[in-house]
Please model this.
Amino acid sequence: MKILVPIKRVIDYNVKVRVKSDNSNVDLANVKMAINPFCEIAVEEAVRLKEAGTATEVIAVSIGNKSCQEQLRTALALGADRAIQIDTEQNLDALNIAKLLQKIVEEEAPQLVILGKQSIDSDNNQTGQMLAALTGLAQGTFASEVKVEGDKVNVTREVDSGLQTVSLNLPAIITSDLRLNEPRYASLPNIMKAKRKPLDVKSAADFGIDLSPRTTLLKVTPPAERQAGIIVESIDELVEKLKNEAKVIS
Amino acid sequence: MSILVFADHDNSDLKVDTLKTVAAAQAIGGDIHLLVAGANCQSVAEQAAKINGVSKVLVADNAAFEHQLAENVSLLVTELASDYEHILATALTTGKNFMPRVAALLDVAQISDIIAVESADTFIRPIYAGNAIATVQSLDSKKVITVRPTGFDAVALDGQAEVVAVDTVTDAGTSSHVSDEVSVSERPDLGAASVVISGGRGMQNGDNFKLLEGIADKLGAAIGASRAAVDAGFVPNDMQVGQTGKIVAPDLYIAVGISGAIQHLAGMKDSKIIVAINKDAEAPIFQVADYGIVADLFDALPELESKL
Model:
């Protein structure tokens, strides 16, 4: 079985972003970028399925300009077999990303598509579900366990009330949650090997999809800052403050 | 101009967060209809009919909707969508699961996790784990929106809406429900509690979360956890507070043994009062805490419990 793993280049999760002074967006100049953590978990899951003999090929795909090839190389170093970059300078809405991925699903006909449940920059949590709708496939979002059984896949999902397990007809779309696995570190030999793995570049414009934006980002502002509070010296003082100053307990 | 709000429920009780999503609908303005999709969910419909500002409750009561599978529910909502300009769901795991499908089927963008309404087509939402706030305008004729409950105050249950059955049954037949593993707790729901006490890696193991229980009992609090505590297996996933877990904004949030990674802060920094208990005086949690105490939690928690 083929597994397709769409990945996204985002700000490194350890970096605290700053808003540009003209409030047009956040400032990503000279900021460390990385593969989105949820996408990394998705790659790891696909590679594990290949190592277990369930999958035969893992294809990583990313949409963006040339710089996202860096993240595709990371996916290749983690064990993906080949990569596709869909080249665009546009900052696309999730719907347009899903439409491009739909084309790749049609071309590659994977049995599973595993994506991260959300990217830590736009925090949208949409792409996997939209791709599932466009392809008419079943979805297992927020996955903490994936078990392929015959022509179905059982996905255990992290939901508000606990865990829910669903059975999906293959092919299916899965989005990863944090507990799906713990991604490996790429070894130096694998990083070297990844440089020689195939990486195809396709132009987004060649897919014949209307990629015009569906939303306009009017402005981006910093959040309201919390005033730093005080350090109390004792539990007695804490209880007194909560009762008489903050008045949140009685 | 009409608005359809998807009701969050478990087939017996309406989730209180739905009242906040209705508040967002009121901020947009228009005739508000509520959709209750489930199986044997009449009691939810009765509760929903009392929501202030809702003129009609649509009830799709069918086995196909029992577990609110995204494949089935999204087809239902898409069929109903022609009558509405805005479609809203609460940004909880059910809404997050099926709403982007609705948006894609309608060929429109989704605006996720809004915390405020600027106008009928412009909304405010946090990005980058809440480290930036975006004002986003939708260019589509239909708006598909998920609403972050902490951004809105619940409307009252003093209304009287007409209840109408919807006969549409949409079963995609591509997925089925296998099982649920529901965490049962006598305590209030994390999202609804006015006091939340959360433990982090500093709790060292799951047994030590008992130290939080006595305090939670005295304060009527819900118990939460940081990602580190959940990843380490101390407590189940439904207790996670953070960017990708539950977003809470109680009157009082007590963070115990939590260092305060930005991903955790994203889930709780809108709380009214934040208390941090941590033995590391340099922990970033103290930068957002109203009251901090630098102490070993194994000394501080029993003392706090005894003094409440």
